[in-house]
Each structure stands twice: as structure tokens, then as C-alpha cells.
Amino acid sequence: MSKLKIAVQKSGRLHDDSMKILNDVGISIDNGKDQLKASAKNFPIEVFYLRNSDIPQYLRDGVVDAAIIGENILIEKGSEITIVEKLGFSTCKVSVAVPKSSKYKSVQDLQGKRIATSYPNTVNQFLEQNNITANLHIINGSVEIAPNIGLADAIVDIVSSGSTLFKNNLKEVEVLLKSEAVLAVSPLISSENQIILDKLKFRFQSVLKGRQSKYVLLNAPNDKIQDIVNVLPGMKSPTILPLAEEGWSSLHSVINKNDFWEIIDELKLKGAQGILVCPIENMVL
């Protein structure tokens, strides 16, 4: 039986988040310490643990069928590779940072400056868009140290929390792009493995939808039901069940977690009581 070959980053936050979503969609991976390849027990998939920067070439050559990879890496090294799903985790930015003492006012201040980066293609595109000429120093590794040792006037690097910039006396001044983990597919994937990938994508979508939603149960007097229904977005319409106490009903619905507190506050104002909120593991639409 054919197996889908999928690449993930071999270490770091993206690795951990990738393995979590595979686990959340019910795929059990047999991966021992320092293994470069592992198979799933209950799904036709093999996981390859690779360096993030190498994955675009593996996709391009068809060595792997798909990958969970940072969008920023595809923009830099594999812009022609197709993204089939954005996964919403391992978010970061690719940003310009300069020393805190710098009197930076606008992107034009980069004219003629020395910029250290691991993302030369992304930086060159940004500079061209802004009609700026600068000298790039391509560094693999600790880019943020470059201004402190006199190698560069600015850097372009990944920014997550900003703590690394702070520790190196740098400040973020421009955001080139925002990135998250994505599911990408090789242009050479077979039709048989494409079917497996579609099944995996469906599972991912169900888990991601669940992560973005909350299940809400509440009690309300019957004369308040319509006012409460008008507040609840729901997938189609709320479920309404009569309670043992006459004149009262229980309402069940799903709300977006980003709107959670605003909706809860409004539900209380409309007469809802005994509001219970539960996480959702999967949501199949």
C-alpha cells in the first residue's frame, strides 16, 4: 500500500506543533530518538524529519509528497510550491531590526546600509519594491549579533516574541511579511498519494475549526429565547431543548473563540443563565 511521505522540521517549535496536530488528528507516529524517518501505526504516512530550509528542495524533487513548513521558508526558497492549507500555528514575522540607538524614521533610512539576513530573496524583493539599494550580508545562524560586532547596520530575521531582539539591544522597525505553518504539496505527488493527502487535509481542517470554536450551553426563560438566538451565531441555528422546569429551555450552540467574551457578555444581558463553555476537539462540517 502506498504511503504519503510528509516532511516536518526536525526540531524546534514548528516540529513540536507539527507533531501535536498529527497527534490531534489521530495519527500515532513511531519515532525513536534521532530517527530521520518514522511511520504511523494507523495511517498510511511516513514522516521525514528534515532541516526547515532543505524542505522546499525535497518537495521540488518529489523526495517527499508534502510538508508542514513555515510559510516564510516557502516564500524565500520555494515560491512556486503550492500551499494547500494554512495551519494557524508557529506564527512569526520576518522583520527589519536596527540598534535601539538608531534614529530610524522610515524605510528610506536603509538606503546604502549593510543588512545581515538569512532571507536574501525576501529582502531583495522588499528593497526593490521600495527602490532601495543596500549591501546584503548573508548569514546562517545568529543574525542578531551582526550589528553588535560591526558587521551590519540592520538585520532582517524571524521575530516571534521579540525577546531575542531585546536581548541584543535591537528594535523592530519594519515587517516584511507575516508567516505561519502551512501544509505544502510537491508538484510530483502521485494521484494515489494525493488521495491520502486530501484525507489528511480534511482531518487538519476539522481540528483547526475546532481550535477556533467553543461549544456553549446555557439556560434561559422561554420568553428570552428569541433575543438569545439573535445573539448566537451558531453553525446553522442553536439547538433548543426544554428543561424539566416549566417555562425554561436549554440552548446549545458554537461560537468563535475570538468573539467569545463579547458574546458571553451579551448573552448575560439577554437573560442567559448557567452558561457552560466547552472546548471542541474536532468540527466536521
Which key terms come to mind for this protein?
285 residues, alpha/beta, six-stranded mixed beta sheet, five-stranded mixed beta sheet, 8 helices, flat
Descriptive notes:
This protein is α/β, with parallel strands linked by helices. 28% of the residues lie in helices and 32% in strands. The protein has eight helices and 15 strands. It has helices at residues 13-24, 55-61, 71-77, 120-129, 163-167, 191-211, 225-231, 260-269, and strands at 4-9, 37-39, 45-50, 66-70, 82-86, 92-99, 114-117, 135-138, 154-159, 170-179, 181-185, 213-221, 239-242, 248-256, 273-279. The strands form three sheets. The chain has a six-stranded mixed sheet with strand order 2-3-1-4-11-5. It has a five-stranded mixed sheet with strand order 8-7-9-6-10. A four-stranded antiparallel sheet has the order 13-14-12-15. β13 and β14 (248-256) form a beta hairpin. The longest helix is centred in the C-terminal third of the chain and has 21 residues, at 191-211. It is flat and about 75 Å long.
Helical amount among residues, as a percent range?
25-40%
Q: Give the CA-based shape.
A: flat
Distance between the termini: 29 Å
Instruction: Summarize model confidence as the mean pLDDT.
Output: 91
Q: Please tally the β strands and state the result.
A: 15
| Class from secondary-structure proportions | alpha/beta
Please write the string of helix (H) and strand (E) elements.
EHEEHEHEEEHEEHEEHEHEEHE
Largest sheet: 6 strands, mixed
